[in-house]
Amino acid sequence: MPGRSLYLLRLRAWFQVAVIAALAGAVGRLYAYTLWLWGQAPGAAAAVPPAAPPPVPPLVEAFLPGQALAGARVWLAGHGFDPVHPAGLTIFLAALAMSLLARRGFCAFFCPVGYLCEGLNRLGRRLSLSRRPGRLVSTLISLPKYLLLALLLWFVFVQVAPADLAVWLLGPANKGAASDLLRPFLAPSANLLIPLGLILAGSVLVPGFWCRGFCPYGALLGLLALFSPLAVWRDRKKCTYCRRCTRLCPARLPVHEARRVSGPECRGCLKCLAVCPEPGCLTLRAGYGAGARRLPGWVLPLLCALVMGGAYLWAVNSGHWESPVLAEENRLRHLLYQQFQPALPP
Ligand code: SF4
Ligand code: SF4
Ligand code: SF4
Prior knowledge:
Bound molecules: iron/sulfur cluster
Number of helices: 17
Strand order of the largest sheet: 2-1-3-4
Strand content: under 5%
Number of strands: 4
Structural class: mainly alpha
Shape: globular
Distance between the termini: 67 Å
């Protein structure tokens, strides 16, 4: 018998379509910007007209979580909101807030890397290449990301003074981070291709290879999600131990044994809840112990959408989305282009 909440899978699929469409548009605009930038380099083919550069789309700053962590540190220390990648910092803070409220909602509903890794592992299962590791190996696999997170937090919160971080945020390396995101992929080197190939192959072979094993962003969100009042609960009396939930859980959690699925690896994707065939066996609840209150499954994705949508509207209306610093950089680059363009080959 199919699960009674299959609409949750469709809801998540719609989230995925919307996120991928928005990112595809942003990456397309970034590609146009990269071409413009390459066209102005001395010696490059001057294929780009001397028009004003297309703006770098703020959404691509979501791919700079390291900068966002530094920006958060600087902001917490009272040095102001990062003016270079404000959209990246906004998305990062929204993801943290989402975790505190609604588990790892960012991983479940927004992160395209998570979608990609899940899709690759689905392919691996279809080709009978994917193997589910045992509990001990699963636990060992999940350790490197905490080590990476600890190193990052130590560096950003202990090793470097916030004032120095603020100076670095305004420096040339950081200013070019968003606009240079595509460069390594347009002329890939072995330093990029080898680790990328390992991550992709690992994701095909082992469920959650990247997300569970190495992503420090996911580790941080998982630790914050420990405080989330929302969680999937299992009613032992209604459970038939068919294990459908466990088989389809992308984090490979033993849902069929849990009372409350509340560990840091649970992404809150609600796939288990959607596929459970027993009515009322798996439910979304808010709270702890006997006082936990049952909620409809759609509340969790709705909360995630409200947090991200609210953060976006706040950022746009308060001038924390488009970067004034990058706009000025673009203007200066355009002036340089106009000045040197006559010297470039036709
Ligand atoms: S663990 Fe990292 S890569 Fe995976 S979905 Fe979460 S943020 Fe994205
Ligand atoms: S919770 Fe129990 S009944 Fe529901 S899918 Fe899991 S094992 Fe089957
Ligand atoms: S336990 Fe359920 S909600 Fe958590 S990751 Fe697994 S399928 Fe998703």
